[in-house]
## 1
Amino acid sequence: MTKQFKALYKTVVILLAAAAAMLLGALILWTIGADVTKTYSVIILEPLKNKIEIGEVLIRAIPLTIIALGISVAYRSGIINIGAEGQMAMGILAATAVALALPGLPKYALLPLAMIAGTLGGAAWGFIPGILKAKLHVSELLSTVMLNYIAAQFYTFCLRGPMLDPAEITMGSGTPQSMRLTKAIWLDRLVPGTRIHTGVYIALAMAFIIWLLLWRTSWGYKMRAAGASERAARYGGIGVAGYLVVAMMISGAFAGLAGAVEIAGVHRRAIEGITGGYGFSGIVVALFGGLHPAGIIPASFFFGLLIVGADMTQRMVGVPANMVLVLQGIIILVIVATRMVLANPYLMERVWRRYQKLTRRDKEA
Amino acid sequence: MEPNTRKITSLRVEHITKRFPGVLACNDIALSVAEGEVLALVGENGAGKTTLMNILMGLYRPDEGRILINGEEVVFRSPNDAFAAGLGMVHQQYMLVANMTVLENIALGFTQAWSPLKLNLDMVRARIDEVAAKYGLAVDPDAFVWQLSVGEQQRVELVKTLCLGARFLILDEPTSALTPQETDELILLLKRMTSELSIVFISHKLHEVKNLSDKVTILRHGSVVFEGSTADHSSGDIAALMTGREIHLPRNEAPTCEGNPALEIRGLKIRSDRGFLAVDGLDLSVCAGEIVGLAGVSGNGQRELAEAINGLRKVEGGEILLFGQELANRSPRAVIDAGMGYIPEERNTEGIVPSFSMKENFILKDADEAQFSARSFLRLKEIDRNAEALRTEFDIRSPDTKVAAGSLSGGNIQKVILAREISRKPRFLIAVYPTRGLDMGAAEFIHKRLLEKRLEGIGILLISEELEEILDLSDRVAVIFKGRIIDTLDRRSADSRKIGILMAGVHNDEAV
């Protein structure tokens, strides 16, 4: 098989996939009576038109990256974490609590402290399903989802009760949110006029750390072995149960950190709806990124783009954001299917032989 | 394709070629089997036998060539087409759903018992009883497949294929899990069955080829190198044609050693997954520098014994002493650290992490050792160097050490495991079915290595069903039946007939 053929094959497959996704999407847009071409151009081009919008994409990619990194650690260790949503909420609460309790501390002390608190809050929430799985064989799917509900209710309780902004009480408006946090916890804005914050560096550093952990340390080796084949890992003397708990705690810690970064970098106070599905999108991003930091970073950016694009189509072409979510779903399915096709060497061989027959016939003719 | 019940009077394949990326698995192969004939297909691992059979069964489609049944060309798009045409295959790797019962597994293919809202399990059960009685293949229809030993699973596969009404049998190493008596019975049974159907079987065991087949076809590197009548050629000729060289399986000729007991087991009791005592009061001792062969039909407690010694299964009672150190109910890590090496039964799923590269598999037990990691950071160069050295030393055939271990052939996987276990310098070694399914070349290699280790003074417990293997290698032979050692024989007094009878649970020789 020639190199040119391989490149050609891949290009054609990708183009066909893109065409298929566009066509399916067009069909749906056409059914709801939207302007197909305009919708497409808004989704794809508008979020990248100026630095403000690119910034919006980036600030969504930051929590997605951090959460997806944590989920990839759990996934590679053989445990599926659907509880990032709850772990993120607990991280936000822990970081907020620290910021509210110690408003007098200088930035170099308070910011790291709040980040660590967020991390620990998430880790604690990840520890519960981890230990339940390791000791009692409780399905992590069940426990993480249930813990999401508990965390969500606890979050609401805190924002309406102990952490409620005193100003809201005096004004009587009663919006469930915390006081605006002290400036000492703020992550700095990087580019004037945008909301991009230094959380970008945190996300990149975390990606590096996860890569180091999984592929360069004996801990990561053992976690991956436990995930890839529990039986062989047990045979090899690896304490699978212990690594499950550790993996789940790391996963929770990352979700918690994402929460802390999100309030310190974007909202600067705890409000309702911060988690907003990041915990679930993080799972898709992690899988989409091939459970590898190098894939997760671009995947997060892509998902950030889709989130912002959905928002814009609603405003600019009147296509409901929910419809754009449907399009996103189609795009993801098509990309996953394309990757399966590209990873299938048998198919490529068959196409190659058919191609050879065709060219031979042409020459003879 | 319409299902029919016509007899298959001839099956021919012509010019079959199948390519896999980078490999020519079958190269212009032709075969023919006439009515009532038994064709033996022999060749080393990776010679293309299984690929060819998978083509016959519709699992793969050939790139070129055609298949003719009763002179008519047939095209199999899926295994269903092959079933409908009357071909039935028992695979080397059993195609059973582990968390279903035997009955349910057989019902999976038994379409007569299906109706839109009801599965007629009674009908399936009746069919199983009928087939089991007819061919003398006892299976428990209500046992879950995951509870069965490999040997029992093979029996289920045979029963399944027969239940589904196969009129042409393809058997991929059918006897690899049977005792000599059972093998003889199976051979008789298969011979009897040739009045009804034709058989193609794949085997590494040349005496079976001699006993059962009318014709033999030898494959090497995907091509037919020989075909002819079995009666005209000796086993030695066939072996030489198969590998392209003469093979001599090594024998344990060294004088009996008188080392100190290395492994001592007393009154051991272990429960199986099904909850009964699979090992019930077992006593066994192995000296340093001695190979004790544990013979027995699979499912008599061997798996449980090996797992319990290695900390992978709970011990209910009794003790396991390795050089005086108690190992019962210790963690796998503790057993490994005590110096135990273990070649497990399930080489593909337990002995290696299939998705990991070969070099990663070499450090499965030693990721924390100073040789391979410093302050928890892996020493990649050392891991590479180690892997290259082992690959060369153990003649593991692969392009490099980065290939996924699961993609290697059975013989090479076993070499990876052996290389890891031996290079760790164990004080004791447990080898469970170390050469099952391997060709003679690979078996020869592994036997040599085990004998070398014995001479170095390592005690070895060899669990096997292959009597020849046990007789070739062991200093003493212990026979396990229903979780107990029913007798231990000295190498000189042991022969395959005696052991075979003991394996069947008959202690008194006169009774047979």
## 2
Amino acid sequence: MKILTPMRALWSLSVLGAVLLGALTLGLTAGPSGLGLGEILSVLADRDASGPAADIVLRVRLPRVLLGALVGACLAVSGVLFQAMLRNPLADPYVLGVSGGAALGGILVLSLGSAIGLGYAAVPPAAFAGCLITTAVLYAIAGANARVSTTSLLLTGVVFNAFASAAIVFLASMAGLTEGASIFLWLIGSLSSIRTEVTGWVAIFLVLGLGATFPLARGLNLSALGGESAEQLGVDIDRQRRVVLIASSLMVGAAVSVAGMIGFVGLIIPHLLRLILGPDHRLLIPASAFGGAAFLVICDAVARTILDGRELPVGAITALAGGPLFLWLLRRYHQRVFS
Amino acid sequence: MIGSARLWLGIALVAACWTGASAASDAPAPAAPSLRVVSMNPSLTRMLIALDAQQLLVGVDEYSGDHESAVAALPRVGGLFNPSLEAVVALEPDLVVVVPSVQQRDFRSRLRELGVEVLELASITFEQLLASMQTLGDRIGRSEAARERVEAIRSTWREVAREASLQPRRSAVLIVQRDPLYVVGGESYLNAMLDAAGLDNVAAEYPEPYPRVSLEWLIAAGPQVIIDSSADPVNAVEHWARWESIPAVAENRVVAVPQGLVTLPGPYLDRSLLTMVDAIRNADRTSDTGGGARLQ
């Protein structure tokens, strides 16, 4: 097991910060319109820039890249936290059903919104409302007894996701083909319909989530020994679970509300970084924020450019890229450990 | 309730998946006064009504039943995604008219296995639509009515194109959905409509009828006219106003057309074309006054 020293943490986060910076640069320079680097730099340097290049760089690419980074960070950090809290390597940000609630809220508006005068702009608030309701239900279940049972949480999540899936299938079967296409794209996850006004909200939930959970990192490390052992070492397991549940749910809800159900980021990035950096959550939590942000921004740059002006949902790219990458890393890890 | 005419667009999108010829019938059969017809598609229902053949209909799809008063009382036999084989067979039809959608492939096969004649009529390109109307007219004994309707459309098309040829051509985009952004591509009959109106579709390079494109692509393409036929309740002029670098926005040539008024494959393409041309003319007139056009 790798011992975490301040120098090692600083070095690791510096490298990841550089990767994120590179990803952000790629995100700003990649696009179907073929703007040159000089044009992009001049637009960025000029506060009063106008014209197609300014619109593309400042009002299309920049908000999208920033929001992609925030969403990626939210998903990856939530993934780390859920995996630690549930002590289950298969846990991802969507495991507790929060995403199901958000998806149901968003898809209700997507499928029925036009009939009641609601446009696509109403989707994120509706999705976040769905997330809040689900989180409240989960919290009520978690707090029903003195002890917070991860089994109860997991089972509730599985059941709620199944219920939400059934409701979504029902809504999709009633929808016309254009609504059906919107629902399909939203379920895969996409950053194409971003709105700049929501970026600040996602940033707030990410900062709050990190602020609330980073102090728990040592407790999460000890939780790996098992609940009772961790409690004997002074960890308040129930409080830790409640904080992780609420903070992660809000981060997931914020991410899903604006970008749909982007998969793999919250599963792959934590595992990938755990393989590289070790299991210490004091490093893993901030590293996942950087890693998730960089991964999603790079995937979105691919999604925007691979089809020459036509868009691919970024969720398809994260799954296509994340799966093989993860298997390759896992194989390397096993070779290193068992050789 | 689902937005008006969205399913029409849906039918067109679905039919994009089809790769066959413009129209195909199992076997030509003589017209009969007692022909019992089931329509599985709203555009085909509208064609039958336009050809004064609604009395032949014994069943229709859900959307037709909901939106066409002439057939509202007829039995419903499901929709694009959930056609009811049993309901259709129970009506003992002589003929079932469908679009060649991927979704109803098995449904069509089962009907044929049960000995029901199925007439597939495509509605993606302009020529497909006209050929489908003529084929349908021939099959139900309304050849002359179909020929007249087709000729009326072609005549209007020629006249509009002739008038448009006197003006310089402009680049344009026709928005069918804003979020995610879908526009009319090169394969759609709507591309032919833009062409006849003197507009060069900036998305004509895409072979599919309704490609999903990026906002960045649209800004870079810089169309001189935006025709927004999406169902989003936010005013089109207001929605596009933030992208001032697009010439259509800068010159106040954003044309809002309620969904279905233009983007409706069916027997009245001539009216659709004239509606669109009127909307563009209205935008041209108001462009100097600082506002785009909205067709009510």
